[in-house]
Specification:
single chain, five-stranded antiparallel sheet, globular
Length: 514
């Protein structure tokens, strides 16, 4: 497919890539977006069925290894991770950007909350976020839509939280509580992770991608970028090579390349793009591409009640949140903090998150689905250089390209913090009146931090504007650039960072600097 070379190539059509595409197209730049997955018509292709998740989740080969192998959920298709995400969209706190200065753990970011405030507001308004900021928000702020009403599941969980002195609230969530921006209010069908056929859930495909295309951007789906090309003499990237659905290879050039393929595939693509100048991976003079990978340590805590809860009636996640234990406390034997979020999943996922249950206990657990409530205990995982994304030497994908190898081990603080979150969730579940509390799966959620930002090219991959230290016309706009992961869902912050980077890119391009 022969297309005209654009000003900007954006690799990945998820939350961040789509935002960048829309923003740069609105500034008059010609933009082409390349997406590995398919384009879906949600109303037709993603009708309520748990099996639909298999269409929109990444299922290509990856190797998960290390002492604590983790498998973060990642999406694929035009819309990326927003096709499968559950929409919870809180802001980071100022202290989340200064963990080393305040607690001596992790590392400090080159940016802070104040740098992102206006971008948080912009994304919340453009994407559409409903909810309350909560009593422990980084500051009191208003969201563009009112909060969702707590379903019975959330009311039950909130009851136990209040008995322990906590202050539960309806958190920010990018699912419409009222008609907004041409999209309808949520009908509470409960299939959020399998795609949203009603359009109430904010997705990149229905929002930023659609608006970018209205501004002239082109989107190519089912094309897999396997190499970013580099001109050593000029010291710049020149474009990419990609394979279409028939494995036919094409090359497209551009003045500027933005990688937005998430914290697993972005480092993989840079490592696949090694050349004579960068033998250990493109833009990797620091040796940190693929290092300091992070995930959130989480526990699933279930409570069985005598009366039906019917927690599946409503949004899967985020009808209620507890953030009382988020602020670090020097009296704890761990650093950082955690949140508790309501999360009742569809039946197959419910079975998968049961943890170590088997036999009669497992059958009983499945039978009690409609009588079960669930907290998601969600803690911060700190960066460690030994947690990496590399290229596997044996496993390859269908294109004969090395698969990503994800090596992970929780640190001592991760384990202690997650255990504290689990125990508090269990205590709250008992306070809510559960006749039996079950501890489900301990797993890693979200992927972050494999191409961290920083001011020093020796200790980071990109600068505070997501621009490669090594290559001035290469940018990374996704969760790869995170320095630490905070203790809340990362998508809103990733999008705010991408919004800030887009502003910088547009300004630099206008001045002729790129």
């Amino acid at each position: 497919m022969k297309i005209e070379n654009p000003d900007v190539l954006v690799i990945g059509a998820g939350a961040c890539g789509s935002l960048v595409a829309r923003e740069l197209a609105s500034r008059g730049l010609s933009v082409v977006v390349l997406e590995a997955g398919k384009r879906f018509n949600a109303a037709a292709d993603l009708q309520n069925s748990e099996a639909n998740a298999g269409k929109i989740m990444w299922t290509e080969p990856r190797v998960y290894t290390g002492k604590d192998a983790i498998i973060p959920k990642t999406g694929v298709g035009v819309g990326g991770g927003t096709l499968v995400w559950l929409g919870v969209a809180p802001r980071f706190h100022p202290s989340d950007f200064r963990t080393y200065s305040t607690e001596g753990v992790g590392a400090d970011w080159p940016i802070g909350y104040d740098d992102l405030r206006s971008h948080y507001e912009k994304v919340e308004r453009e994407f559409g976020v409903a909810g309350e900021c909560g009593p422990f928000a980084p500051e009191q702020y208003q969201l563009p839509m009112p909060p969702h009403r707590m379903n019975w599941h959330a009311q039950l969980l909130a009851r136990g939280a209040r008995k322990l002195g906590a202050q539960p609230f309806a958190p920010p969530i990018a699912i419409n509580s009222v008609d907004y921006d041409g999209r309808p209010a949520c009908i509470y069908c409960g299939w959020c992770a399998s795609g949203c056929p009603s359009g109430a859930k904010a997705t990149a495909s229905e929002n930023y991608i659609a608006k970018a295309q209205q501004l002239g951007a082109r989107v190519l789906s089912e094309v897999f970028v396997h190499r970013v090309n580099y001109a050593a003499k000029a010291g710049r990237v020149t474009g990419v090579d990609y394979l279409d659905a028939n494995r036919k290879e094409y090359r497209i050039n551009a003045r500027l390349v933005v990688l937005a393929t998430h914290a697993l595939e972005t480092p993989r693509l840079l490592l696949l793009s090694a050349n004579n100048t960068f033998p250990n991976g493109l833009a990797n003079s620091s040796g940190l591409v693929g290092r300091n990978f992070m995930s959130h340590p989480t526990w699933q805590v279930f409570g069985t009640f005598d009366e039906p809860i019917n927690a599946f009636k409503g949004m899967q996640m985020g009808h209620v949140m507890v953030q009382d234990y988020y602020k670090p406390d020097a009296r704890n034997d761990y650093a950082r903090g955690f949140v508790l979020i309501s999360y009742m999943m569809t039946p197959i996922t419910y079975a998968n998150l049961s943890g170590t249950f088997y036999g009669a206990e497992f059958k009983e657990f499945l039978h009690e689905y409609s009588h079960t409530a669930a907290w998601w205990a969600h803690a911060e995982g700190l960066p460690h250089e030994h947690n990496t994304i590399t290229l596997d030497t044996k496993v390859k994908d269908a294109r004969d390209l090395p698969a990503a190898r994800v090596t992970y081990e929780w640190g001592d603080n991760d384990v202690k913090l997650a255990a504290a979150a689990r125990d508090k969730a269990s205590e709250m579940m008992s306070a809510s009146g559960a006749r039996k509390v079950r501890i489900g799966l301990n797993y890693g959620a979200h992927a972050m931090g494999s191409c961290r930002m920083g001011r020093d090219p020796k200790t980071s991959v990109v600068n505070e504007h997501c621009q490669s230290h090594d290559i001035p016309n290469l940018f990374i706009c996704d969760t790869s650039v995170f320095v630490t992961g905070a203790g809340v869902n990362p998508t809103l912050t990733a999008m705010a960072i991408a919004s800030r980077a887009s502003e910088h890119i547009a300004g630099s391009a206008k001045r002729g600097e790129l």
